[in-house]
Design brief:
- The chain has about 350 residues and is an alpha/beta fold.
- It has three domains: about 130 residues, BirA Bifunctional Protein, domain 2; about 110 residues, Periplasmic binding protein-like II (D-Maltodextrin-Binding Protein, domain 2, 3-Layer(aba) Sandwich); about 80 residues, 3-Layer(aba) Sandwich (D-Maltodextrin-Binding Protein, domain 2), CATH 3.40.190.
- About 35% of the residues lie in helices and about 25% in strands.
- The strands form four sheets. Strands 7-8-6-9-16-10 form a six-stranded mixed beta sheet, sandwiched between helices. Strands 13-12-14-11-15 form a five-stranded mixed beta sheet. A three-stranded antiparallel beta sheet has the order 3-4-5, with no helix packed on it.
- Strand 12, helix 11 and strand 13 form a beta-alpha-beta unit.
- The longest helix has 18 residues.
- The protein is globular.
- It binds 1-O-pyrophosphono-5-O-phosphono-alpha-D-ribofuranose.
- The site of 1-O-pyrophosphono-5-O-phosphono-alpha-D-ribofuranose has 12 residues, from strand 14 and helix 13.
- 1-O-pyrophosphono-5-O-phosphono-alpha-D-ribofuranose binds next to strand 14 and helix 13.
Length: about 350
């Protein structure tokens, strides 16, 4: 992010850009972030106004969160937008905002307006099934990808001062409490994002191969710089990637394979593991898979014909958890970044 905003170093709004991704949370969170910077007077007025408004809504007894980091919910909104939630439900109940240009597009009369819509499906669910289906126990719940990702994550978490003995000695347990503040659930990579999307975990630790395959990178918070490997196109010697006939490609990653071949028409054969077998036994002409040390390819006489994108482990957040457990999540992210850069 810092690299991304470095072009704007001379702008009066540069200090704002440095805190922008973290400008959400309670009124106090926003004030704490803004206290670290000096803003141009006009920008300061807008933010003061927003804080005033939030304080007024809070006086009605609602818990208010401000989010300056988000984009407009729909393109027709011209000002403030808002969403309403109930405790423990990750989807919104009500959503709306200010749209001064919308009504004039119906009969030509310009008219400032505020409107909102109720999410009837969620509302019905909450009404019929009780207040909440989320068993939030106040702990930070992390879905961790089992196996190699898990092995690399444990020392990283330990260097943040978290006692990971219960995780090291977990036996066949799938839910592992780490102290009073964290609970880890162990899952397969592709399921980590399912748990996240459904709001039953707050954070996910998952390879970017999984995120790329699911085309889901929206709430990626940190590159843990572990689990580094790379996608490759591989086959037996003599394979011709450009050969005209329709090729059969074995892979665990059909989306990435499709993207890689683009307009070239290939038959994709989905394989769940030991993908290297496919060209060896004549099931596929080549494979798109990941390689770390290159050992599996070498030992099976396979050659690399192309290198695709690099992979590493990422920390992903559930958007609502990020809003609700903002400070706990940012604290962990800051500690992890420090441990990574040591
Ligand atoms: C991955 C990948 C390769 C292997 C590459 O498989 O699909 O098979 O690792 O690693 P290397 O380059 O260090 O030899 P994984 O072990 O995750 O299991 P799988 O074969 O069941 O998919």
């Amino acid at each position: 992010y810092n690299e991304l905003i470095s072009d704007f170093k001379n702008s009066a709004l540069y200090p704002f850009l440095t805190v922008w991704p973290r400008l959400f949370g309670t009124v106090q969170d926003i004030k704490d972030e803004l206290n670290q910077i000096i803003l141009p007077a006009a920008a300061q007025r807008i933010l003061d106004n927003l804080v005033d408004m939030a304080n007024q809504v809070a006086q009605t007894g609602q818990q208010v969160r401000i989010d300056v980091s988000t984009e407009p919910l729909q393109s027709y909104y011209t000002g403030l937008t808002f969403r309403g939630y109930v405790d423990g439900v990750s989807q919104y109940i009500v959503s709306g905002g200010r749209y001064d240009g919308l009504l004039s597009s119906f009969d030509g009369t310009p008219m400032p307006a505020v409107g909102m819509a109720f999410n009837i499906d969620v509302l019905t669910d909450v009404t019929l099934n009780g207040e909440s289906n989320n068993q939030d126990n106040g702990k930070l719940r992390i879905a961790l990808t089992k196996g190699r990702v898990e092995k690399d994550f444990i020392p990283l978490l330990e260097s943040c001062g978290v006692d990971c003995e219960p995780l090291r000695n977990k036996a066949r347990k799938l839910i592992i409490p780490l102290g009073d503040a964290i609970e880890v659930i162990l899952a397969k990579g592709p399921d980590v994002t399912t748990y996240l999307k459904n709001g039953v975990v707050d954070l996910g630790i998952v390879g970017s191969d999984v995120l790329d395959e699911q085309d889901d990178t929206s709430y990626e918070m940190l590159d843990l710089q572990t689990g580094k490997c790379q996608f490759i196109l591989a086959s037996l010697a003599g394979y011709d990637p450009k050969e005209g006939r329709r090729q059969r490609i074995g892979t665990k990653y059909p989306t990435i394979t499709k993207q890689y071949f683009g307009a070239q028409d290939v038959e994709i054969i989905k394989i769940e593991g030991s993908v290297e077998l496919a060209p060896l036994v004549g099931l596929a002409d080549a494979i798109v898979d990941i390689t770390e040390t290159g050992t599996t390819l070498r030992e099976n006489n396979l050659e690399i014909f192309d290198w695709l994108q690099k992979i590493s482990t990422r920390l992903v957040a559930n958007p609502l958890a990020l809003k609700q457990k903002r400070n706990t999540i940012f604290k962990l992210i800051d500690q992890l970044s420090e441990a990574i850069n040591k």
